[in-house]
Amino acid sequence: MTQETYDLIIIGGGPGGYSAAIYAARYNMKTLVIAKERGGLITKTHLIENFPGIITATGFELMDKIEKHVKHYNIPIVDDIVIQAKKEGDNFKLTTQGEKEYIAKSVVLATGSNRRKLNILGEKEFDGKGVSYCATCDAMFFRGKDACIVGGSDSAAKEALMLSEHCKKVYIIYRQQKLRAEPINYDRVIAKDNIEIIYNTNIKEIKGEQVVQKVILDNEYKGSNELELQGVFIEIGQLPNSKIAKDLGCKLNDKDEIIVNREMRTNVQKVYAIGDVTDFKFRQAIVAASAGSISAWSAYTDLN
């Protein structure tokens, strides 16, 4: 039986992947989305206030709206994970964890990233027992307790604000001497009575019995290297999911990010990349969505 061939297969269901699908449909391209997690990492974001047309929404609410837009064009979305991709003649064959094979004339890699870990003593042991990588998911379990956010980015600031709605006390522990948050979020953090920032400090170890009870710091805080708390939320960036790009021979930088030009083209003909998996420096939902629209245009142009 002859396998069905798609003009474009998009790997990833975040803002970029879904935007690529919407534009591809408008170009009348036969399109398929294969998504490990519908909506991607942004669905774990507590508050989105910088996406045009959306004054305020959770990440889940935003992606639910975008997914409905994709479905409006009757674009199929397959819940699966692409584990292998290779060139076969003029086309590409994608194999999934669900043991399915798909053929594409062109491919958009919107594979996103995974949470970066501290790799310290106790982190793995207490994962799910006080250690978390998502305040939106787990903040409710720490109501009335003390917790910390590790990191100093805008994401870390927003996670701290989310935690402050539930926790008695929230510490931001950051290895540098100034938060890198957007000014509006920095001001919100400073205004919160139950958020305290500990600068120029790292966590060396997470300790406890069955659950987290304290962390060990590499600098003294109020005369001690130990800080008692029940939750450790880690927000120190992401690692790009670029394995499929490597399989296809795409060029990566020293951070394993896919190198793309301003048309979202990689060095491999008819393979495009968008979003957090690429070497773009500004990682925002609106940037990924824009890149998705450009990638669909590039794919349409190259196929015609």
CATH top level assignment of the largest domain: Alpha Beta
Distance between the termini: 27 Å
Quaternary arrangement of the chains shown? single chain
Strand order of the largest sheet: 4-3-2-8-19
For the CA atoms, what is the radius of gyration? 21 Å
CATH topology of the largest domain: FAD/NAD(P)-binding domain
Largest pleated sheet: 5 strands, parallel
Report helical residue fraction. Answer: 10-25%
Please write the string of helix (H) and strand (E) elements.
EEHEHEEEEEEEHEHEHEEEEEEHEH
CATH superfamily of the largest domain: FAD/NAD(P)-binding domain
Total tally of structural domains: 2
CATH architecture of the largest domain: 3-Layer(bba) Sandwich
Global mean pLDDT: 94
Number of strands: 19
Low-confidence stretches: none
Our estimate of the beta-strand percent is: 25-35%
